Protein backbone atom coordinates (compact mmCIF):
# COMPACT_ATOMS: atom_id res chain seq x y z
CA UNK A 1 0.00 0.00 0.00
CA UNK A 2 1.31 3.37 -0.99
CA UNK A 3 1.47 6.09 1.62
CA UNK A 4 -0.75 8.49 -0.28
CA UNK A 5 -2.18 11.29 1.79
CA UNK A 6 -5.86 12.08 1.42
CA UNK A 7 -4.91 15.21 -0.54
CA UNK A 8 -2.79 13.16 -2.96
CA UNK A 9 -5.50 10.51 -3.31
CA UNK A 10 -8.06 13.21 -4.15
CA UNK A 11 -5.90 14.43 -7.04
CA UNK A 12 -6.20 11.07 -8.75
CA UNK A 13 -8.94 10.17 -11.18
CA UNK A 14 -11.69 8.37 -9.26
CA UNK A 15 -15.41 8.31 -9.97
CA UNK A 16 -17.03 11.72 -9.58
CA UNK A 17 -13.92 13.49 -8.30
CA UNK A 18 -13.33 17.01 -9.59
CA UNK A 19 -10.86 19.54 -8.16
CA UNK A 20 -13.84 21.31 -6.54
CA UNK A 21 -15.20 18.12 -4.97
CA UNK A 22 -11.71 17.27 -3.71
CA UNK A 23 -11.57 20.62 -1.92
CA UNK A 24 -14.94 20.03 -0.27
CA UNK A 25 -13.85 16.60 0.98
CA UNK A 26 -10.59 18.06 2.32
CA UNK A 27 -12.53 20.70 4.22
CA UNK A 28 -14.75 18.01 5.76
CA UNK A 29 -11.61 16.05 6.73
CA UNK A 30 -10.10 19.14 8.36
CA UNK A 31 -13.27 19.75 10.40
CA UNK A 32 -13.18 16.09 11.48
CA UNK A 33 -9.61 16.57 12.71
CA UNK A 34 -10.90 19.34 14.99
CA UNK A 35 -13.73 17.09 16.18
CA UNK A 36 -11.20 14.32 16.79
CA UNK A 37 -9.04 16.69 18.82
CA UNK A 38 -12.01 17.73 20.97
CA UNK A 39 -13.04 14.09 21.54
CA UNK A 40 -9.47 13.20 22.57
CA UNK A 41 -9.58 15.93 25.22
CA UNK A 42 -12.92 14.68 26.55
CA UNK A 43 -13.47 15.46 30.20
CA UNK A 44 -10.27 17.55 30.32
CA UNK A 45 -11.95 20.13 28.10
CA UNK A 46 -15.28 19.85 29.93
CA UNK A 47 -16.81 18.46 26.74
CA UNK A 48 -18.76 15.52 28.11
CA UNK A 49 -22.43 15.58 28.97
CA UNK A 50 -25.50 17.39 27.78
CA UNK A 51 -25.64 20.82 26.18
CA UNK A 52 -28.99 21.31 27.91
CA UNK A 53 -31.23 21.39 24.84
CA UNK A 54 -32.95 19.10 22.37
CA UNK A 55 -32.31 18.90 18.64
CA UNK A 56 -34.90 18.76 15.86
CA UNK A 57 -35.05 14.98 16.32
CA UNK A 58 -36.19 15.43 19.94
CA UNK A 59 -32.91 14.04 21.22
CA UNK A 60 -30.86 15.61 23.99
CA UNK A 61 -27.89 17.39 22.45
CA UNK A 62 -24.49 16.65 23.90
CA UNK A 63 -21.88 19.40 24.13
CA UNK A 64 -19.86 17.54 21.52
CA UNK A 65 -22.90 17.30 19.18
CA UNK A 66 -23.09 21.08 19.19
CA UNK A 67 -19.35 21.63 18.86
CA UNK A 68 -18.99 19.10 16.02
CA UNK A 69 -21.91 20.66 14.19
CA UNK A 70 -20.39 24.14 14.57
CA UNK A 71 -17.00 23.02 13.22
CA UNK A 72 -18.59 21.60 10.07
CA UNK A 73 -21.07 24.43 9.50
CA UNK A 74 -18.48 27.18 10.06
CA UNK A 75 -15.99 25.63 7.62
CA UNK A 76 -18.47 24.63 4.92
CA UNK A 77 -20.84 27.58 4.75
CA UNK A 78 -18.05 29.84 3.51
CA UNK A 79 -16.57 27.22 1.18
CA UNK A 80 -16.63 28.49 -2.43
CA UNK A 81 -17.84 25.14 -3.77
CA UNK A 82 -20.61 24.48 -1.25
CA UNK A 83 -24.04 25.74 -2.26
CA UNK A 84 -25.79 24.61 0.90
CA UNK A 85 -25.56 22.30 3.87
CA UNK A 86 -27.93 20.32 6.01
CA UNK A 87 -27.22 18.80 9.41
CA UNK A 88 -29.01 16.24 11.53
CA UNK A 89 -28.72 18.75 14.36
CA UNK A 90 -30.42 21.70 12.61
CA UNK A 91 -34.06 22.10 11.67
CA UNK A 92 -33.41 24.06 8.45
CA UNK A 93 -30.64 23.84 5.87
CA UNK A 94 -27.82 26.42 5.97
CA UNK A 95 -27.20 28.40 2.76
CA UNK A 96 -23.69 28.28 1.32
CA UNK A 97 -22.19 30.19 -1.59
CA UNK A 98 -24.27 31.21 -4.63
CA UNK A 99 -22.17 29.33 -7.18
CA UNK A 100 -21.28 26.38 -4.96
CA UNK A 101 -21.52 23.19 -7.01
CA UNK A 102 -22.20 20.84 -4.11
CA UNK A 103 -24.58 20.29 -1.21
CA UNK A 104 -23.17 18.67 1.93
CA UNK A 105 -25.38 16.76 4.37
CA UNK A 106 -24.03 15.34 7.60
CA UNK A 107 -24.55 13.72 10.96
CA UNK A 108 -21.84 15.63 12.84
CA UNK A 109 -21.58 13.15 15.71
CA UNK A 110 -23.12 9.73 15.22
CA UNK A 111 -23.57 7.52 18.30
CA UNK A 112 -23.17 10.49 20.60
CA UNK A 113 -24.72 8.62 23.54
CA UNK A 114 -21.38 6.74 23.52
CA UNK A 115 -19.51 9.93 24.40
CA UNK A 116 -19.96 9.76 28.15
CA UNK A 117 -18.69 6.16 28.31
CA UNK A 118 -15.60 6.83 26.12
CA UNK A 119 -16.79 4.58 23.30
CA UNK A 120 -16.69 4.97 19.51
CA UNK A 121 -18.45 7.85 17.77
CA UNK A 122 -18.30 9.09 14.19
CA UNK A 123 -19.15 11.75 11.62
CA UNK A 124 -21.14 10.79 8.50
CA UNK A 125 -21.30 12.90 5.33
CA UNK A 126 -23.10 12.81 2.00
CA UNK A 127 -22.38 15.09 -0.97
CA UNK A 128 -24.99 15.88 -3.64
CA UNK A 129 -24.76 18.12 -6.69
CA UNK A 130 -26.25 21.61 -6.26
CA UNK A 131 -28.59 21.93 -9.20
CA UNK A 132 -29.59 25.57 -8.79
CA UNK A 133 -27.57 28.58 -7.78
CA UNK A 134 -30.22 29.67 -5.27
CA UNK A 135 -30.62 26.85 -2.83
CA UNK A 136 -33.93 25.85 -1.31
CA UNK A 137 -34.96 22.78 0.67
CA UNK A 138 -36.30 21.28 -2.55
CA UNK A 139 -32.75 21.21 -3.99
CA UNK A 140 -31.76 18.72 -1.28
CA UNK A 141 -34.61 16.34 -2.14
CA UNK A 142 -32.48 14.08 -4.32
CA UNK A 143 -32.37 10.30 -4.15
CA UNK A 144 -29.23 8.61 -2.78
CA UNK A 145 -28.30 7.54 -6.32
CA UNK A 146 -27.48 11.23 -7.00
CA UNK A 147 -24.70 11.31 -4.38
CA UNK A 148 -21.29 12.13 -5.84
CA UNK A 149 -19.39 11.16 -2.69
CA UNK A 150 -20.06 9.89 0.81
CA UNK A 151 -18.10 8.74 3.79
CA UNK A 152 -17.56 8.77 7.50
CA UNK A 153 -14.87 9.39 10.04
CA UNK A 154 -14.71 6.90 12.91
CA UNK A 155 -13.20 8.23 16.13
CA UNK A 156 -12.07 4.87 17.49
CA UNK A 157 -8.79 3.50 18.84
CA UNK A 158 -7.46 4.93 15.55
CA UNK A 159 -9.26 7.71 13.76
CA UNK A 160 -10.18 6.51 10.28
CA UNK A 161 -12.03 7.79 7.25
CA UNK A 162 -13.99 5.67 4.78
CA UNK A 163 -14.67 7.38 1.47
CA UNK A 164 -16.38 6.66 -1.81
CA UNK A 165 -16.46 8.98 -4.80
CA UNK A 166 -18.52 6.46 -6.79
CA UNK A 167 -15.69 4.10 -7.71
CA UNK A 168 -14.99 1.76 -4.82
CA UNK A 169 -14.30 2.46 -1.16
CA UNK A 170 -11.00 3.53 0.41
CA UNK A 171 -9.91 3.69 4.06
CA UNK A 172 -7.59 6.36 5.44
CA UNK A 173 -5.99 6.30 8.88
CA UNK A 174 -5.32 9.57 10.67
CA UNK A 175 -1.67 9.97 11.59
CA UNK A 176 -1.56 12.16 14.72
CA UNK A 177 2.12 12.96 14.07
CA UNK A 178 1.75 14.40 10.58
CA UNK A 179 -1.89 15.40 11.23
CA UNK A 180 -2.89 13.88 7.89
CA UNK A 181 -5.16 11.08 6.74
CA UNK A 182 -3.08 8.39 5.01
CA UNK A 183 -4.52 5.82 2.58
CA UNK A 184 -4.27 2.44 4.35
CA UNK A 185 -6.54 0.27 2.20
CA UNK A 186 -8.58 0.56 -0.93
CA UNK A 187 -10.73 -1.75 -3.00
CA UNK A 188 -12.72 -2.64 0.14
CA UNK A 189 -15.06 -5.55 -0.70
CA UNK A 190 -17.73 -7.35 1.34
CA UNK A 191 -18.29 -11.09 1.13
CA UNK A 192 -21.75 -11.94 -0.17
CA UNK A 193 -22.19 -14.34 2.78
CA UNK A 194 -21.59 -13.67 6.45
CA UNK A 195 -22.04 -15.20 9.89
CA UNK A 196 -22.30 -11.93 11.78
CA UNK A 197 -25.35 -9.73 12.37
CA UNK A 198 -26.12 -6.50 14.24
CA UNK A 199 -29.55 -5.51 15.53
CA UNK A 200 -30.93 -3.91 18.69
CA UNK A 201 -32.72 -6.99 19.99
CA UNK A 202 -34.51 -5.08 22.75
CA UNK A 203 -37.02 -4.02 20.07
CA UNK A 204 -37.77 -7.60 19.09
CA UNK A 205 -41.41 -7.58 20.21
CA UNK A 206 -42.07 -4.54 18.00
CA UNK A 207 -40.57 -5.97 14.79
CA UNK A 208 -42.62 -6.97 11.76
CA UNK A 209 -43.03 -10.66 10.96
CA UNK A 210 -40.37 -10.87 8.19
CA UNK A 211 -37.63 -9.55 10.49
CA UNK A 212 -38.81 -11.76 13.38
CA UNK A 213 -38.61 -14.77 11.10
CA UNK A 214 -35.13 -13.87 9.81
CA UNK A 215 -33.67 -13.28 13.28
CA UNK A 216 -35.33 -16.43 14.68
CA UNK A 217 -33.58 -18.42 11.97
CA UNK A 218 -30.21 -16.80 12.70
CA UNK A 219 -30.58 -17.49 16.43
CA UNK A 220 -31.53 -21.12 15.82
CA UNK A 221 -28.30 -21.38 13.80
CA UNK A 222 -27.28 -24.91 12.85
CA UNK A 223 -30.63 -26.26 13.96
CA UNK A 224 -32.54 -24.00 11.50
CA UNK A 225 -32.92 -23.89 7.71
CA UNK A 226 -29.71 -21.81 7.72
CA UNK A 227 -27.62 -24.79 8.81
CA UNK A 228 -24.87 -22.61 10.37
CA UNK A 229 -24.35 -20.61 13.56
CA UNK A 230 -24.26 -16.80 13.65
CA UNK A 231 -22.64 -14.25 15.94
CA UNK A 232 -24.16 -10.96 17.08
CA UNK A 233 -22.36 -7.61 17.50
CA UNK A 234 -23.79 -4.19 18.43
CA UNK A 235 -21.76 -1.03 19.13
CA UNK A 236 -24.76 1.36 19.18
CA UNK A 237 -22.91 3.71 16.85
CA UNK A 238 -23.86 3.24 13.21
CA UNK A 239 -20.43 4.35 12.00
CA UNK A 240 -18.69 1.70 14.11
CA UNK A 241 -21.20 -1.01 13.16
CA UNK A 242 -20.85 -0.21 9.43
CA UNK A 243 -17.06 0.04 9.73
CA UNK A 244 -16.95 -3.48 11.15
CA UNK A 245 -19.03 -4.68 8.18
CA UNK A 246 -16.75 -2.93 5.66
CA UNK A 247 -13.79 -4.63 7.38
CA UNK A 248 -15.11 -8.18 7.70
CA UNK A 249 -18.66 -8.33 6.24
CA UNK A 250 -21.93 -8.79 8.12
CA UNK A 251 -25.47 -7.44 8.17
CA UNK A 252 -26.78 -4.44 10.13
CA UNK A 253 -30.49 -3.83 10.69
CA UNK A 254 -32.53 -1.02 12.16
CA UNK A 255 -35.82 -2.27 10.74
CA UNK A 256 -39.26 -0.77 10.76
CA UNK A 257 -40.92 -1.45 14.10
CA UNK A 258 -44.32 -0.86 15.62
CA UNK A 259 -43.07 0.84 18.80
CA UNK A 260 -44.02 4.22 17.32
CA UNK A 261 -45.91 3.48 14.09
CA UNK A 262 -45.74 7.15 13.06
CA UNK A 263 -41.96 6.80 12.63
CA UNK A 264 -40.94 5.02 9.44
CA UNK A 265 -37.74 3.85 11.12
CA UNK A 266 -35.09 5.20 13.43
CA UNK A 267 -32.24 6.21 11.13
CA UNK A 268 -32.21 9.33 8.97
CA UNK A 269 -32.30 8.82 5.21
CA UNK A 270 -30.22 11.86 4.24
CA UNK A 271 -27.58 11.83 7.00
CA UNK A 272 -27.18 8.14 7.77
CA UNK A 273 -28.93 5.67 5.46
CA UNK A 274 -27.97 7.16 2.07
CA UNK A 275 -24.25 7.75 2.69
CA UNK A 276 -23.85 4.32 4.34
CA UNK A 277 -25.78 2.67 1.49
CA UNK A 278 -23.49 4.33 -1.05
CA UNK A 279 -20.40 3.03 0.77
CA UNK A 280 -21.79 -0.48 1.23
CA UNK A 281 -23.00 -0.77 -2.38
CA UNK A 282 -19.62 0.48 -3.60
CA UNK A 283 -18.06 -2.35 -1.58
CA UNK A 284 -20.32 -4.94 -3.22
CA UNK A 285 -23.03 -5.07 -0.54
CA UNK A 286 -26.72 -4.09 -0.59
CA UNK A 287 -29.01 -1.77 1.34
CA UNK A 288 -32.80 -1.88 1.46
CA UNK A 289 -35.67 -0.92 3.73
CA UNK A 290 -36.85 -4.52 3.44
CA UNK A 291 -39.05 -3.42 0.56
CA UNK A 292 -37.08 -1.01 -1.63
CA UNK A 293 -33.48 -0.11 -2.31
CA UNK A 294 -32.61 2.78 0.03
CA UNK A 295 -30.79 4.88 -2.58
CA UNK A 296 -33.86 4.82 -4.85
CA UNK A 297 -36.09 6.55 -2.28
CA UNK A 298 -37.24 10.00 -3.39
CA UNK A 299 -36.92 12.08 -0.21
CA UNK A 300 -39.68 14.45 0.88
CA UNK A 301 -38.16 15.80 4.08
CA UNK A 302 -34.62 16.65 5.19
CA UNK A 303 -35.08 14.70 8.42
CA UNK A 304 -37.01 11.76 7.00
CA UNK A 305 -36.44 8.39 8.70
CA UNK A 306 -36.22 4.98 7.02
CA UNK A 307 -35.85 1.33 8.02
CA UNK A 308 -32.32 0.10 7.24
CA UNK A 309 -31.19 -3.42 6.29
CA UNK A 310 -27.62 -3.20 5.01
CA UNK A 311 -24.52 -5.29 4.45
CA UNK A 312 -23.54 -8.57 2.83
CA UNK A 313 -25.59 -9.07 -0.31
CA UNK A 314 -26.98 -12.57 0.17
CA UNK A 315 -28.22 -11.80 3.70
CA UNK A 316 -29.83 -8.49 2.70
CA UNK A 317 -31.49 -10.21 -0.26
CA UNK A 318 -32.83 -12.94 2.02
CA UNK A 319 -34.36 -10.53 4.55
CA UNK A 320 -35.81 -8.49 1.69
CA UNK A 321 -37.36 -11.62 0.16
CA UNK A 322 -39.16 -12.31 3.46
CA UNK A 323 -41.04 -8.99 3.19
MN1 LIG B 1 -26.50 9.23 14.02
MN1 LIG C 1 -25.77 12.65 15.57
UniProtKB/TrEMBL annotation:
<keyword id="KW-0963">Cytoplasm</keyword>
<keyword id="KW-0119">Carbohydrate metabolism</keyword>
<feature type="binding site">
    <location>
        <begin position="110"/>
        <end position="113"/>
    </location>
    <ligand>
        <name>substrate</name>
    </ligand>
</feature>
<feature type="binding site">
    <location>
        <position position="272"/>
    </location>
    <ligand>
        <name>Mg(2+) 2</name>
    </ligand>
</feature>
<feature type="domain" description="Fructose-1-6-bisphosphatase class 1 C-terminal">
    <location>
        <begin position="192"/>
        <end position="322"/>
    </location>
</feature>
<dbReference type="Pfam" id="PF00316">
    <property type="entry name" value="FBPase"/>
</dbReference>
<feature type="binding site">
    <location>
        <position position="200"/>
    </location>
    <ligand>
        <name>substrate</name>
    </ligand>
</feature>
<feature type="binding site">
    <location>
        <position position="88"/>
    </location>
    <ligand>
        <name>Mg(2+) 1</name>
    </ligand>
</feature>
<dbReference type="InterPro" id="IPR033391">
    <property type="entry name" value="FBPase_N"/>
</dbReference>
<feature type="binding site">
    <location>
        <position position="107"/>
    </location>
    <ligand>
        <name>Mg(2+) 2</name>
    </ligand>
</feature>
<comment type="similarity">
    <text>Belongs to the FBPase class 1 family.</text>
</comment>
<feature type="binding site">
    <location>
        <position position="109"/>
    </location>
    <ligand>
        <name>Mg(2+) 1</name>
    </ligand>
</feature>
<protein>
    <recommendedName>
        <fullName>Fructose-1,6-bisphosphatase class 1</fullName>
        <ecNumber>3.1.3.11</ecNumber>
    </recommendedName>
</protein>
<dbReference type="GO" id="GO:0042132">
    <property type="term" value="F:fructose 1,6-bisphosphate 1-phosphatase activity"/>
</dbReference>
<feature type="domain" description="Fructose-1-6-bisphosphatase class I N-terminal">
    <location>
        <begin position="11"/>
        <end position="185"/>
    </location>
</feature>
<comment type="subunit">
    <text>Homotetramer.</text>
</comment>
<keyword id="KW-0378">Hydrolase</keyword>
<dbReference type="InterPro" id="IPR044015">
    <property type="entry name" value="FBPase_C_dom"/>
</dbReference>
<keyword id="KW-0460">Magnesium</keyword>
<dbReference type="InterPro" id="IPR000146">
    <property type="entry name" value="FBPase_class-1"/>
</dbReference>
<comment type="pathway">
    <text>Carbohydrate biosynthesis.</text>
</comment>
<dbReference type="InterPro" id="IPR028343">
    <property type="entry name" value="FBPtase"/>
</dbReference>
<feature type="binding site">
    <location>
        <position position="110"/>
    </location>
    <ligand>
        <name>Mg(2+) 2</name>
    </ligand>
</feature>
<dbReference type="Pfam" id="PF18913">
    <property type="entry name" value="FBPase_C"/>
</dbReference>
<keyword id="KW-0479">Metal-binding</keyword>
<feature type="binding site">
    <location>
        <position position="107"/>
    </location>
    <ligand>
        <name>Mg(2+) 1</name>
    </ligand>
</feature>
